[in-house]
Amino acid sequence: MPNPASPPRYILDEIVLHKKQEIAQMQKELPLTFLQNQLTTAPTVRNFLTALQENPSQPSLIAEVKKASPSRGIIREDFDAVAIATAYERGGAACLSVLTDQKFFQGSFANLRTVRSHVELPLLCKEFIIDPYQIYVARTAGADAVLLIAAILSDEELQAFLHVIHDLGMNALVEVHTLIELDRVLKLENLRLVGINNRNLENFTLDLGTTKQLLAQRQQQLQSLGITVVSESGLYTSADLSLVAEAGVRAVLVGESLVKQSDVEQAVRSLLRHDLL
Ligand SMILES: O=P(O)(O)OC[C@@H](O)[C@@H](O)c1c[nH]c2ccccc12
């Protein structure tokens, strides 16, 4: 029996449905051939993956520029994408993630562009990618990496989109939430970076145990394939970071707990415990 309190896939389906209309509209305004012509003048690609591997002594931080979410509503009223991004950079983040979905997260490609022109760190485009067209939009706006969510893509789409991302010189962060999804993505060719989302995108429940459980079952395989693992969502304290680092992740993706603090730079330092050094 479906649980009426958490209708399965409801939000994800709604996001994907809306995304299709959005893409159709964007393609009218900015045809793919136009974007392809712009590639030569797009900002140079920075290496997202190597930035995550630089400091082996602690998990690297991907700090997320996030104004709102369907589960939390508005996270920060006086939201200034550039102020937050530059504070993340000063605080010691390795990379940034910029939400570009407008309707559900109040993000934008304009934010991605302006963040690109104000920080040096590699940038992840945090989007619900369902069409390769969006990958070109991300690259021309200055993305260095793109998120692919296994829950909304077929195996064939994942493989094809991964190729497009790599052909454009970027990295793909392939996100999973279940062992079934992890096993699907482990079959992909050229997989380098996997994200384990602690949040269930269908009903928004959070469980840090997700990272632990999936790694306990597939750590060896991930390691032998040389795949870098990122734990995503619901991480608030340096104790949370230690927990997922012990489980075997190389990096963490954190949004809400940093964005909502009045001193974002200090929040990054204390999350990374740089304030104690
Ligand atoms: O704000 P949090 O709980 O620290 O989470 C950040 C990030 O993991 C989350 O925004 C996220 C992870 N995967 C996603 C996919 C789509 C939209 C958002 C997300």
Automatic annotation (TrEMBL):
Indole-3-glycerol phosphate synthase domain sequence ranges: 12-271
Alphabetically ordered keywords of this record: Amino-acid biosynthesis, Aromatic amino acid biosynthesis, Decarboxylase, Lyase, Tryptophan biosynthesis
GO terms of molecular function: indole-3-glycerol-phosphate synthase activity; phosphoribosylanthranilate isomerase activity
Similarity comment: family membership: Belongs to the TrpC family.
InterPro entries: Aldolase_TIM, Indole-3-glycerol_P_synth, Indole-3-glycerol_P_synth_dom, Indole-3-GlycerolPSynthase_CS, RibuloseP-bd_barrel
Catalytic activity: 1-(2-carboxyphenylamino)-1-deoxy-D-ribulose 5-phosphate + H(+) = (1S,2R)-1-C-(indol-3-yl)glycerol 3-phosphate + CO2 + H2O
Official protein name in the record: Indole-3-glycerol phosphate synthase
PROSITE patterns hit by this protein: IGPS
The organism of origin for this protein: Dendronalium phyllosphericum CENA369
Pfam families: IGPS
EC assignment: 4.1.1.48
